[in-house]
């Protein structure tokens, strides 16, 4: 991670110490003060630090979640916590952190973000495989009912047809379900 976009919301004043600490650990800092500037896609940061009050935290997290798919840290300026964030944040940063503490907070947060994204991708892949398997099972059921073949024969038929047409079994199954599914439901 080399560059961070630091967004200062309405009531939050930029702390020179914060920018100095980020620069001290080798970060390129892009400072943004207006919400309209967030829509400019000329920025290609590796992460975002959100500097705002706790009352506005969830509002700004929602805005950032719609604009970016990046790790977000909250630069906390309040002493207490009243509610939890509505979106994932990678960590909370404070003005009292030294450059090494800040660097470790960013590294750990980035690792957590990458792990969470990896798990999300795995979940999506597993969901896709499950949906494909459901299609194959429905197509097998249709073939068993309409042709009288066994489940094994129906599976072999789908597999052979997929290999012959150089398609996935799910694509062949989808065609069968689309054609015969509505007729079978009557």
From TrEMBL:
SMART domains: ANTAR. Residues 116-177 form the ANTAR domain. It holds the Pfam family ANTAR. It comes from the Bacteria. Gene3D superfamilies: Winged helix-like DNA-binding domain superfamily/Winged helix DNA-binding domain. This is ANTAR domain-containing protein. It comes from Paenibacillus baimaensis.
């Amino acid at each position: 991670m080399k560059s961070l976009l630091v967004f200062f919301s309405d009531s939050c004043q930029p702390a020179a110490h914060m920018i100095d600490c980020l620069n001290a650990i080798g970060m390129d800092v892009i400072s943004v003060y207006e919400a309209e500037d967030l829509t400019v896609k000329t920025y290609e940061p590796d992460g975002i630090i959100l500097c705002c009050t706790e009352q506005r935290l969830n509002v700004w997290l929602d805005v950032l979640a719609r604009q970016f798919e990046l790790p977000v840290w909250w630069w906390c300026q309040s002493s207490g916590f009243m509610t939890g964030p509505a979106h994932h944040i990678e960590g909370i940063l404070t003005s009292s952190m030294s450059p090494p503490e800040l660097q470790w907070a960013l590294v750990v947060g980035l690792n957590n973000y990458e792990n969470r994204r990896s798990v999300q991708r795995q979940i999506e892949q597993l969901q896709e495989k499950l949906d494909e398997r459901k299609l194959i099972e429905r197509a097998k059921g249709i073939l068993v009912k309409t042709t009288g073949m066994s489940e094994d024969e129906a599976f072999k038929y789908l597999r052979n047809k997929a290999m012959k047409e150089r398609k996935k079994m799910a694509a062949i199954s989808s065609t069968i379900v689309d054609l015969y599914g509505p007729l079978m439901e009557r």
